[in-house]
Amino acid sequence: MGTNANEDASATSAAVDYALPGPYRVRVLPQLEHTCAKCFPSCTGLSCLSRIKVYVPRVEVSPDALFPLGEVERGATRSRAEDDAMEAPYPVAIITPGFLIDGDAYASIARRLCSWGYVVVTYTKTESVAGGSLDDELSTAILDDLISWVGSDVLISPYADAEAVYLIGHSRGGKISMLQATRDKRIKAICLLDPVDNTVYAPLGVGYPSALAAMKVNPSAVPPVAIVGGANGGECAPAESNFAEFFAASPSGAVARDHPPWGISCGAGHFDFVDEATFVQKVICPEGTIDASATRDLSAAVAVAHGERVFRPSAAPDDDILERTLASLRSQWTDRGVEFSSVKRL
Fold first, then answer.
1. How far apart are CA 93 and CA 228, in angstroms?
2. 65: pLDDT confidence band, cut at 50, 70 and 90?
3. Rounded Cα distance, 46 and 36, in Å
4. Which ranges of 48-106 would DSSP assign to H, the alpha helix?
5. Residues in CB range of 314: below 8 A, 6 or more apart
6. Which of 75, 119, 252, 315 has an alpha carbon 20 to 30 Å from 127's alpha carbon atom?
7. Is the model's pLDDT at 80 over the cut of 70?
8. pLDDT tens readout for residues 44-56
9. pLDDT, the chain, mean
10. pTM of this structure
11. Is the CB of residue 195 less than 8 Å from the CB of residue 169?
């Protein structure tokens, strides 16, 4: 009996394709705003304000399931998706944007994660390059406060498990996500998209700690890690502080909580990870050698697969999950005429 059960679990796991949209429909709540109360006096007024968008999984329930004729009929007509609707609250995935990037720039990744049963939060801080930027410590405090707010907001909290948090961060947002992850037990997994630590533009100093140093000092505090990096980051993601350094600092073995770090590199430019790069972004950072939409597909697939292996583990080994996901992407890219050879595991 036990053997058959394991075989069934493995077969079910093998049939799941994390490189495709999940079974949930996506509901986007009206834009919300939140002011970081715990950030005072480091920031005041509008400088503490974030604009927030929340994506909530939605399950279409059949009329027969809503109005069952009896226990037998209800059990016969209720689908797996309808059973999954009873799993709320869902894990919370929070996407932290890069420096001066709008949270809406990651809508495609947010929608993909939500379709797999995550309450996804994107946010945009109030800052500008003209003297109104927030340092890394304050940005981390805003993220910390945002997690607490998700767990207490009357509109979101019924759907969201704020003790099962998944952080996704791009560029500087990857660094901020990692700083928070090393300090917060609510965070169970983290996915970094072309992360950047301290650079000449944000040198090590007061308000600008190193996330790489935090990982090395306390590896047991680092949750399971997945990283997708672009090989064409240029000065926007210099080699001494880029994704490869984050992967090298990621814990492995028992310290990795039974989930070894995943590292993927590809021929992406630093801003290929956002839905639509601006003209200025395209000018200041090198463009990638692969289609930007493929980079986003890769990022979304790895983010989903990593989240599922941590929050909804199956009988399949972690390495098999990643290889199946990459194989599915390779097939999709081949059909689209996109070269896959730049995608490599670290």
1. 17
2. very low
3. 10
4. 63-66, 71-77, 80-84
5. 9, 10, 12, 13, 16, 308, 321
6. 119
7. no
8. 878 889 999 999 9
9. 89
10. 0.90
11. yes
26 contacts 59 by C-beta, under 8 angstroms = no
Return the amino acid letter for 5. Answer: A
**What span, in angstroms and rounded, lies between the C-alpha atoms of 330 and 164?**
31
Is residue 103 a contact partner of residue 142, using CB atoms and an 8 Å limit? no
- Contacts of 197-200 with C-beta under 8 Å, sequence gap 24+, read 197/241, 197/245, 197/246, 198/241, 199/238, 199/241
Which among 250, 264, 238, 277 is positioned nearest to 101, based on CA atoms? 277
Please tell me whether residue 250 adopts helix, strand or coil conformation. coil
> How far apart are alpha carbons 299 and 293 in whole angstroms?
10
E runs forming strands in 59-138:
90-96, 119-125
| Residue 80, token pair as written in the block | 């797996």
Return the half-sphere exposure (C-beta side, CA atoms, 13 A cut-off) of residue 151. Answer: 14
Mean pLDDT, range 273-285, rounded to an integer: 91
Buried b (16+ CB within 10 A) or exposed e, 53-76: bbbbbebeeeeebeeeeeeeeeee
Enter the tokens of residue 141.
Answer: 């405090």
DSSP letters spanning 283-332: HHSPPPSS-HHHHHHHHHHHHHHHHHHHHS--SS-HHHHHHHHHHHHHHH
Burial class (CB in 10 A: 0-12, 13-18, 19+), 85: middle
3-state secondary structure of 265: strand
3-state class percentages of the chain: helix first, strand second, coil last, to nearest 5: 45, 20, 35
Q: What are phi and psi of 260, to 5 degrees?
A: -60, 150
Q: With contact defined as beta carbons under 8 Å apart, do 106 and 97 qualify?
A: yes
State the Cα–Cα distance between residues 65 and 63, nearest whole angstrom: 5
